[in-house]
Structures are given as C-alpha cells and as structure tokens.
C-alpha cells in the first residue's frame, strides 16, 4: 500500500495505536478514542510534541464504525479540504459509506485488510 502526501488516515479500531508509528509523521491520523489508542497517541506526543497531526476523537455515533465514519466525514473534509485519499481502518465501505462519500466526489475504492481506501481524484468505476 503506497501513501500520498495528501492522504488522511482514519482509524476506528480500538487497537490501532499499535500501528500509529507506521503513519504518524507521514499523514494526518484521526484515531478513535480507546485506552490503547490514547496511550499510543500520548506516547507520541510526549516524544515529539504535536508535530505529527494525530487527533484522538470520540465517536459521536456508537452504533457502528460505518455510522461513526459518516458522522465524522464532514469534519475531516473541513480540516483537510484538499484530501485526495482516505485510508480507513476498522470500518467497511458499505453502501451507506459509499453514498456518503459520493457527496465529497466519490472516487475509487480499494478494499484492504480491516478497512478500505477511497481515492477521490481517480475516476470512479461504473
């Protein structure tokens, strides 16, 4: 999986903090609040300050990761309006997720282990 400079990483998995160092410093990371994720973010902040653009958020919609993703999408777009690719972990690209992303330009989807990537600059496949 290759990353672009305008990627944003969203992690809804409560144990994603173990992988935080793979992405922090390369891309903005939005990390769902959990004890393990918070601990990983705090370790990173203590070591390097807030230079890595790691945000820990509390899920507004606890019914499912997909609903949480949809409720967070507008905030992500406001904070990173030039995003080209969202790499999402702990959430699936359900029809509702794809419909929500269509409002932001849609694009192509790639299923990955534990999530998906959406590239909104790529032409959408019919």
Q: How would you characterize the overall build of this protein?
A:
The protein has 126 residues and is an alpha/beta fold. It has a single domain, classed as Rossmann fold. The protein contains four helices and six strands; from the N terminus they run βαβαβαβαββ. The protein has a six-stranded mixed sheet with strand order 3-2-1-4-6-5, covered by helices on one side. Helix 1 (20-23) links the parallel strand 1 and strand 2 (29-32). Helix 3 (65-79) packs parallel to helix 4 (95-102). It is globular, with a radius of gyration of 14 Å. The two termini are 23 Å apart. The model has no long low-confidence stretch (mean pLDDT 87).
Question: In brief, what are we looking at here?
Answer:
This protein has 126 residues and is α/β, with parallel strands linked by helices. Helix content is 33%, strand content 22%. Helix 3 runs parallel beside helix 4.
Give the topology string: H per helix, E per strand: EHEHEHEHEE
How far apart the termini lie comes to 23 Å
Q: What proportion of the residues form beta strands (DSSP E)?
A: 15-25%
| CATH domain fold name | Rossmann fold
The chain-level structural class is alpha/beta
Count of extended strands: 6
Record the strand order, biggest sheet.
3-2-1-4-6-5
Question: What are the low-pLDDT stretches, counting only 5+ consecutive residues below 50?
Answer: none
What portion of residues is helical? 25-40%
Count of helical regions = 4
CATH architecture tag = 3-Layer(aba) Sandwich
General form: globular
Which radius of gyration do the C-alpha atoms yield?
14 Å
Query: Structurally, how many domains make up the residues?
Result: 1
């Amino acid at each position: 999986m290759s990353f672009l400079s305008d990627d944003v990483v969203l992690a809804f998995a409560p144990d994603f903090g173990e992988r935080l160092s793979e992405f922090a410093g390369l891309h903005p990371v939005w990390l769902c609040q959990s004890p393990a994720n918070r601990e990983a973010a705090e370790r990173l902040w203590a070591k390097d300050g807030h230079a890595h653009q790691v945000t820990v958020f509390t899920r507004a919609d606890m019914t499912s990761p997909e609903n949480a993703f949809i409720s967070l999408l507008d905030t992500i777009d406001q904070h990173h309006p030039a995003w080209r690719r969202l790499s999402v972990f702990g959430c699936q690209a359900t029809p509702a997720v794809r419909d929500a992303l269509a409002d932001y330009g849609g694009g192509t989807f790639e299923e990955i282990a534990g999530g998906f990537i959406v590239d909104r600059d790529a032409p959408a496949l019919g």
